[in-house]
């Protein structure tokens, strides 16, 4: 999102916002490099399946109208989503992906200097969206099991806190929050603080004890739920996501949204995807089976990897992250590395997953060797 450096300002007479100087850049997952080696891009949590035929047909039928502005109200897909979740259409609002809707929320709620609380590490766009709104990002470390430390997040709330972001399943660790944990958390959060349950990966969450955002939207007046069509539905390239929120919040989100930000192509693809949910569910089931297979194999290799409820797995590689990424790249596996922290690997095709597992065994041997050398030293 941002590639600003303070040196840029020296070359211009235009005064830029001071917030840009401390804004962390958003680093997208690397793309597969062009080479003779077969590569598997497992860095961006993309759905490995091509579009469903019915979804592709819907987009093709709409494409001759791309010279026209889209329906800014997203009326048809709003009604479809409202029906899908049993809520009023007035509670549904859209944006170009759930990340843009999250930006709408922070801009609509926060004044300059207000605070936004979220776990860390979590979705790396959170501090960027917060800084762009002039608010202060409050990072609360994950616990020792790579999970949200909800008691610590509740304790971090101050009189300046306006928004709390709860990413479940969490990106990049894949861990989820239970319903009991979130209910206990909500008891400690003042009603004037907005709690955003970001469920970009909810379709892959098979934990029966997991919190479901829609239940909390119905139970509490200060909850917003974020969903996206990018992951399970495979529409990442078309950019469409939505919020389910109290009516007055929805109205505010529509007020700050980018005009015509959701294309008609995206709207039609979302409608067709909702109509084909049984086929989508088959693909989700296959990805969950592959995820569980990958997790089991990693455990057999000696990895202490947390159970993921998303479409990716998280490897805590610490100071060896750069070396681990290099090994994966040599094997033709493109992963998402977080410097000196860990590596997130998306669940891809069976062939891609197998290539990852072969590379992961070499990475594990490298880490074990480094640990042995350190102990002997």
Index terms:
377 residues, alpha/beta, 12 strands
The coarse silhouette is globular
Q: What's the story with the biggest beta sheet?
A: 7 strands, mixed
What's the arrangement of strands in the largest beta sheet? 2-8-7-6-5-3-4
Measure the end-to-end span. 43 Å
Individual helix count = 13
- Mean pLDDT level: 94
Rg from C-alpha positions? 21 Å
Helix content: 40-55%
Structural class: alpha/beta
**Tally of extended strands?**
12
Strand proportion, as a percent range, falls in 5-15%
The ordered string of helix (H) and strand (E) elements is HEHHEHEHEHEHEHEEHHHEHEEEH
Low-pLDDT ranges? none
The quaternary organization reads as single chain
Give a description of the structure.
- The protein is of the alpha/beta class and 377 residues long.
- The chain has 13 helices and twelve strands.
- The chain has a seven-stranded mixed sheet, with helices on both faces. It has a three-stranded antiparallel sheet with strand order 9-12-11, covered by helices on one side.
- The longest helix is centred in the C-terminal third of the chain and has 27 residues, at 350-376.
Topology of helices and strands:
Blueprint: H1 6-10, E1 40-41, H2 53-62, H3 75-85, E2 92-95, H4 98-109, E3 115-120, H5 125-132, E4 136-141, H6 150-155, E5 161-167, H7 179-188, E6 194-198, H8 213-219, E7 223-228, E8 241-244, H9 247-256, H10 264-275, H11 277-301, E9 312-315, H12 321-330, E10 333-334, E11 336-338, E12 342-346, H13 350-376
Helix pairs in contact: 2-10, 3-10, 4-5, 4-9, 11-13, 12-13
